[in-house]
Amino acid sequence: MSQYLTEKVQEKRKAIDLSHHLSDLSRARATSPLKGLARYFGRPDLISLAGGMPNEAYFPFAAISGDALVPDSFSLASNQSESSLSWFWKLFGSRKEKTTSISIPKYPATKDDITLKVALQYGTATGLPQLQKFINELVEKIYQPAYSDWTTLVQTGNTDGWGRAVTTLCNPGEAFITEDWTYPSALAGSAPHGIHPVGVLMDDQGMRSEELRKLLAEWDESVRGCKRPHVMYTVPVGQNPTGVTMGLDRKKEIYDICVEYDVIIVEDDPYYFLQMGSYGAKLDRASQAMHADPESWLSSLAPSYVKYVIDYQGRVIRLDTFSKTIAPGSRLGFYTCNPRFAERLERAGEVSTQAPCGFGQSLIAQLLTTWKYEGYVRWLQGLAVQYKSRRDFLLDALREEFHMQVSVGTTSSWKGCTVYTASAKPKTGSSRMLEKRAYGSKALFSLVPPTSGMFVWLKLHFENVPGFQPDEEPNTMEMKLWVKLAEAGVLIGPGRYFASDQEDASPVDGHFRIAFSYASEEDFTKAVKIFGEVLREFFQEQ
Ligand SMILES: Cc1ncc(COP(=O)(O)O)c(C=O)c1O
């Protein structure tokens, strides 16, 4: 019987002891003496003269109230115009947004109330108990961790989550494993600590397992200048910047290699609920309705690494954030990991942020407890449909602007995927001639439609720019084109910003990351037109 099945059949075990991964910094952390007093705070008969707490009578907020959208504000039917016209309805008031009021009083009316007395006071790094309870329910029902003593802990968003995790696990001079292309702030956060990334080649599911095994098996400390990495940073869903998503089988393969080489996985997963399925032609979309039943929808999502079929040892630190599902300004997220790591991360939190901001915690906790688990899941479903419509709109607009040839990928990174390769559409001529010219014209860029997240990743074919020199300085073409686009009024992400190895970005394969998460349909349409004109000029395809 496989290890996974054996684990499933048996009673859930506790996480194994992985404390040998802790960094010197993390081991040296003691409990903050003042925070150590906090465990007495809940006692009703306690007269506290110990802490430097301001009396809540001096908090100028008597209550905080707000209007929150209702969980089913966004339809489950894929209907782009509903979202894009919402500004119009709001402006003219003909279809008002449906809201529910939430209010946080300073003092409790019942014992379970979220109050400003507590939320705005000094507290522990574990955050508001009501929020913790909601988060635990979410993790238990959705991610379904494999071991019994999994623990959650609030943080101030995944950037902070990774920042704290990397210094808790790595010493200066060490390396960590990551995807070849990755989230730049994760690199910028670890670099000043002298902790550097080692990229692993990717394909349409993200990190390639055979490449990971090769890297670890062939690691030569004397050549690399540091010991074999024992930490991985990965973005497995709607990967930033490439948009790819890793399925269960690949996750199991990667996990098994991490068990074999004793590697801790830090799973940064902000786009988990923005899994939207494949991109299809307009006509096919009606038949691709989202699963209306929340449970079927949740079980259709690629599972987290912490799920019972994968992380049976407790070697994954999962990072969740409310940035993409509620609002980035909430600066709120949470870890799910083994209790030993959670305790060390808590120690790191209590001497830096102390705890996430009380305004954000109380508002989000009140919103979530008002919506309840079912309401939040319904909200998330609605968001997934919104992002799907946005992705479809952008890809449709690119297909309008360019001639797109559809093929099955043959390169190692896109093997077997549906690849769209764009060439310039001729501007004038008879339709027969246009077709002929379009067919014969050169490739400008290629893409694989993403199935999750917020980004479309373009591979530019600079080899088709007249006068292209293969030995030109790396990234020069990419930046030249990027500047031309910026000057023409369209700002997109230059691929080089996302390279895990800044030295090794290939000059031929320039890349751009386009976010479909923010702009209006009108702006997308304008931007794609400008993109088309600038590209035609750059590739001299008039
Ligand atoms: C992979 C990844 N991690 C983290 C973040 C930032 O998350 P947070 O706002 O929670 O710090 C982003 C946002 O762009 C991201 O793409």
TrEMBL record:
Which cofactors are named for this entry?
Answer: pyridoxal 5'-phosphate
State if Repeat is listed as a keyword. Answer: no
**Domain Aminotransferase class I/classII large spans what residues?**
120-529
The entry assigns this protein to a family as follows: Belongs to the class-I pyridoxal-phosphate-dependent aminotransferase family.
Q: What is this protein called?
A: PLP-dependent transferase
- The protein's superkingdom reads Eukaryota
- GO BP: any one term: alpha-amino acid metabolic process
Show the InterPro entries listed in the entry.
Aminotransferase_I/II_large (IPR004839), Class-I_PLP-dep_aminotransf (IPR050859), PyrdxlP-dep_Trfase (IPR015424), PyrdxlP-dep_Trfase_major (IPR015421)
